[in-house]
Amino acid sequence: MAAASMLATLAACGGGGGDDGGDVSASADGENEASDIGITEDTIRLGSHYPLTGVAAPGYSEIPTGVEAYFDCVNQAGGIYDREIEWIYRDDAYNPTQTAQVVNQLVLEDEVFAIMGGLGTPTHSAVLEFLNAEGVPDMFVASGSLLWGTQPDEYPYTFGWQTDYMSEGKIIGQYIAENFPDANVGLFLQDDDFGEDGEAGLRQYLSDDQIVAVERYVPGNTNIGPQIAALQAAGADVVVGFTVPSYTALSQLAAAQLGFQPEQWFYSNVGSDPALVGRLLNNFSQGAVSDASLLAGAITTDYLPTVDETDNPWVNEFQRIWDECGGEGELTNYRIYGMAQAYTMVQALQAAGRNPTRDDFIEIVEQVGEDWQGPGLAPFRYSEESHLGISGMSLSRITPDGGAENLTPVLVTDVGDAPIEEYTGEEATPPADAIPEEEPAG
């Protein structure tokens, strides 16, 4: 079973958590204690599950390396209250049964303080009950399912992080209603909460008559030609895909083989990274399609800055972190995603104080998490009533060179019938060394 860990050596480089933090319920002064499972006097142990192998590995397997690089730089800068972050992640191959096995190992054998960034809707659903029953902070799930944020009474230890799929569907649906009012819309959806939540958001702005076909795929079944043919037969001239990257590539290849050319493709942020989709197109077509040119003109969503935004200060800082603390390969959008999640985790650990318990930690995120600023384009929604993460996104068109042309400002909303509004807040700028300096909230 594949596994990786990060145990970077502390260095006296300044920054990080500093020495002036405090316990949630006591003075900031004092000494480090082994305050709960996974926290010793010298370390905080965090764990996660990712598809390091299998159909979902392309792209997603890069996320934990971004986390690793960020935590490595934080450790070099002094860690969290002089504690080193130990980062352990294990391969679940995007298989829920394997997810349950590796998370059980992380919790019961590795004794992590928290799970952070567990990836995937079908996979993390398999461990949701277990983590909450064990009282393990289940932080910033790498999925936009409503499961992670809308039921804090039932799942008090679980928090989302990225924009949820229903809100994303609403934002895409409104754009279609305003810009393609007479279009016949076809949906190509992953057959789980990912697709279901996205569809629910779309249907708030698109009538049943306008949606002419809904086709679904099951991860692992790569023969999706019949579904794309059905969209074509239904006369869909706008197609919306809530797909992971492999199925974005497969849908484009199937459409090309059928001669299906809808007026407009839309893809969820989850499956629209041009660099990765281009590599997958080349792989799946055995070189017949060598890049992401098939994706040019598609419209997608963004809730983080992307690697092509070379003038963005967050991207510049993440590039520096990757150059200084990263491993092999280039900075990618998936590594930026991992670094951005790690940034939020450091904020949470700093805010929780010097010697938090797991319950202290959860309470602090509910109390102050909505005020945290960082790389995300829109605010968080954390509170006692909601564990949902980033509240909005913008729309952009993929250009032939793999870049993006902005189409809308950042739009914010919430689940249900909450309106969609333009976000008028100021964009956050990175702190020194891109390491937050959150004061203890207790």
TrEMBL record:
As for family, the record states: Belongs to the leucine-binding protein family.
Task: Enumerate the residue ranges of region (Disordered).
Answer: 19-38, 419-442
Which part of the chain is the Leucine-binding protein domain?
43-402
For this UniProt record, the keywords arranged alphabetically read as follows: Signal
Alphabetized InterPro entries for the sequence: Leu-bd (IPR028081), Peripla_BP_I (IPR028082)
Q: Which domain of life is it from?
A: Bacteria
Stated name of the protein: ABC transporter substrate-binding protein
CDD domains per UniProt: PBP1_ABC_ligand_binding-like
